[in-house]
Each structure stands twice: as C-alpha cells, then as structure tokens.
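Figure 3 (text version): structure tokens given as input.
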C-alpha cells in the first residue's frame, strides 16, 4: 500500500484560489507542496501584485475624493467606484481563467509576475 502525497486540489484550482486574497497566494508561495509549479507561482504573484495595485490606487483616489468632496466635486468618488469595478472584473476573470488552465497576463502587472515566478 503506497501513500500518495497529492493535494486535493488541481494545479489550476490552487492557481484560482490564489486570487481570493493575498493570504492564500502568500501561503501557496511559501508551502513547498504548492510552490514547485511556475504556473501556480505566476498566479500567486499576479494576485499579490493586483491586490497591492488596487489598494494603492484606492488610497490615492480616496484621498483625492476627500479633498474634492470638500469642494462639492464627486468625480474622484465615482472614479474610485469604477476602479473597484475594474478590480473585481480582473479578479474574477483571472481566477476563472486560472481555473481553466490559462495564463492571462494583466497589463503592467503580468510581466512583473512572470519574472517573479521564474
């Protein structure tokens, strides 16, 4: 009787799960059981970079919105909502594509993730 050391999830499933938040992405990068695949590493890095980018842009737009709202302008508040819609769309589409075995590179973020994943 041989014991297999296989994960309950496929490589595609692990890559898709890395998009839930940065926490599983970091875990999958750290745990040797999952970090052997360049496919998984790519999606983990892309997820982390997407989260960092979304957070940074959100903070900047929120600060601009706070200043603009004092003057009665709602442009930056709307722009923040559009940015979150784009982020959710990217997050969903990259997770689904990863689940189907595709390596979609987000412009600007994807090439950096590819270099980081080796």
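Below: residues designed for each position.
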């Amino acid at each position: 009787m041989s014991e297999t050391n296989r994960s309950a999830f496929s490589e595609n499933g692990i890559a898709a799960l890395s998009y839930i938040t940065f926490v599983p992405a970091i875990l999958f990068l750290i745990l040797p059981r999952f970090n052997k695949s360049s496919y998984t590493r790519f999606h983990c890095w892309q997820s982390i970079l997407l989260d960092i980018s979304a957070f940074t842009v959100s903070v900047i737009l929120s600060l601009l919105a706070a200043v603009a709202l004092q003057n009665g302008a709602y442009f930056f508040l709307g722009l923040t909502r559009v940015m979150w819609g784009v982020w959710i769309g990217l997050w969903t589409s990259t997770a689904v594509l990863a689940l189907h075995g595709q390596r979609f590179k987000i412009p600007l973020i994807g090439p950096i993730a590819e270099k980081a994943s080796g």
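DSSP finds five helices and no strands in the chain.
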